[in-house]
Amino acid sequence: VQLQASGGGLVQAGGSLRLSCVASGHPFGGDFMGWFRQAPGKERESVARIRWSTGSTFYADSVKGRFSISGDSAKRTAYLQMNGLKLEDTAVYFCATTGPDSSRYDYWGQGTLVTVSS
Fold first, then answer.
1. Which residues contact 25 (CB under 8 A, 6 or more apart)?
2. Per residue in 25-38, pLDDT tens?
């Protein structure tokens, strides 16, 4: 499984960006696809995830109400719509998908940088 993340860039605080993650290969990956981020000097954190079989979503408290994850399960493509961006959202954003074990993210994309400026 290969994941390709895109959509990062430079945006002013309060602005919006939409990240995309496309899975390819066979199989497409497991039941969960998630977005993570890692800011300089900080640990990687989970931002949002979607469960393809149920459509259920999960968000970190820090992004609730501002970010929205969606996608196309058949194409294993996920999007992260980020609105109301804050300076603290600056990070490298990674997408990942689980494999046969839904409790573990086995496949990771290369990351896309989001920089929020004041």
1. 1, 2
2. 866 678 999 999 99
